[in-house]
Amino acid sequence: MDEDRIARSAANLREKPDATSTRLTSLQPSERVTVTGKVRGSEWLQVKTQNGRSGYVLGNLLAVPEAPKPAESAIQQAAPPPSASPREMSVAVPSNLDFGRYHALVIGNQRYRNIKALGTPEADARSIAALLKDDYGFAEVGLVLDATRADMLRALDASMRQTGERDNLLIYYAGHGYLDRGSERGYWLPVDAESDSRVNWLSNGDITDTLKASRAKHVMVVADSCYSGSLVRAVDVVPTSDADLRRLVRAKARTVMTSGGLEPVTDAGGGQHSVFAKAFLDGLRANDGVIDGTKLFAALRRKVLLNAEQTPQYADIRFAGHDGGDFLFVRRGRQQ
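Request: output the structure for the sequence above.
Response:
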């Protein structure tokens, strides 16, 4: 392959494509490597360091280097002009297009028992749940506050049972997150999580497995937590044109929008909401037709970057059955 990549954060170079294999060395943030191959059916990449050492690294820990100035990066090229708003990027709702039923599960974990409590997840979750139901006509909106691991799994299972092959499911999580750099796996932390034990943590692998088994046509995960970028497969995003609505409605989608990459994110900065949650709410409120997840992301990303030291991401979820679709937000007004 011989493709250049850089480490997005500190990463382990392993002897074999296995998180438990011998660590050969550690890659430093922004360290450049050459990808020489990909392990079939796996997210592991075979790489060679600048000093000639070969080994394996998880693909989501590497990024494509930015192009030299004055060229822009792939995300910058894909993003709309600074003046573009969700209203300008949306299209009118077609009268003869069936978007299917919409369901949502919104989780806000704030009052942690064993680790530091947070300040905004409950307000974020309540506002988002209300907006989805009142302005977007979501048929079922599950709101779960201060959830244990068991609560979160039960709610996920219930959401899976409620959705069919023509349905759409949005899962929003606000709460603590953690990246275990030893196993190179991300976690959502329920309110019963302990800082020194993973017994009650919910791994990204658990979430991905659940979504892969879902019958829903479109599934989007929105994660406002530290290290949430470990869910994404890549950072390159190419917006779709308005003419693609019919194709997007039919194509299966498993996408994730995160408030940051492999980094801490702020729990404030948006008044009673986090910076990311406020940008997400503002984007949906500004839409007056149909807007896909890619364009919503392009609008909110700029707002978050201007107000916090974190970089939101949007991509398809690794190994969860994505087939080229996108989540479509259809403004329908308050349900009667």
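The chain has a mean pLDDT of 79.
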